[in-house]
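Example: GDP-mannose 4,6-dehydratase.
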Amino acid sequence: MKKTALVTGILGQDGPYLAKLLLENDYKVFGLVRRYSNPNFSNLEYLGLMNKIEFVEGDLTDESSLINIVKNTRPEEIYNLAAQSFVGGSWDQAKLTTEVNAVGVLFLLNTIKFFSPITRFYQASTSEMFGLGNTNGFQDENTPFHPRSPYGVSKVYAYWMTVNFRESFGLFTCNGILFNHESPIRGIQFVTRKITDGVARIKLGLAKELRLGNLESRRDWGFAGDYVEAMYLMLQQKNPDDYVVGTGENHSVGEFVEKAFLVAGINDWKKYVTIDPRFKRPAEVPNLKAKPDKAQKVLGWKKKTSFDALVKMMVEADLKRLKSVKIS
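Written out as structure tokens, the predicted fold is:
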């Protein structure tokens, strides 16, 4: 009999890659979509998954809907990937960010506690929780949190709630503290996809410049398709725990920009890039780099995709997409 999994955030970036992995492991996958919204299924279509997932309607801010979903689907695993995840936007939508990212997780955990305590739970935590908690040039499971945005703060609340439900009620709950992970289906508002889309537009003559904020920020960037494997492995362990997931190396936004232009065959990238103060955050996080030793040792997880391969994958995907739009 197939195992069942409920994936929130099924329409985002990570949801489709995780659903693909679960289906390959013979799961029945339920995907949560918000009520009263106009859902965009393009990311699932990109991976050819539209007819392979059963969609259920609900909302993380509506606890009764979560109770009904869990009662009806009886998932053995829940992967909570849903969030207001745009860091810059969290300043303008602090209340919404808190309701979804923090209180929504509390609702999910309460639902598991009261109605399905055998369900294993994965919480999508983030390196943004560390913020300025960088004391050794890297971040691991022992690095203190010092978030620098409403998004980071909301995720710290969700992290500790996940830990507390594990320690207080014996639930199988895990935090995956994932560092930046990207793909061709990354949201266009995120800097990496903004870069690759912008570079492709310049290459094809559809744009003349790329406007960005801080080029000095350094991030640990990996491929989302690799990182969902770590999520899955966490819920297959004998005991629940929390893990940092990243590549162990970092690069500046400027490096990402330069490599993206080189993939497109453009060497003099600086003449196309304009620094726009509007895109700078009120409080910057200058340097994030994972130390994923625990995930490598306990889970047996390691990255498969290099930084250069990731940039190439994303630029080529945007070139292909924009060429087809231009032709049509």
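Residues 215 and 253 are 5 Å apart (CA to CA).
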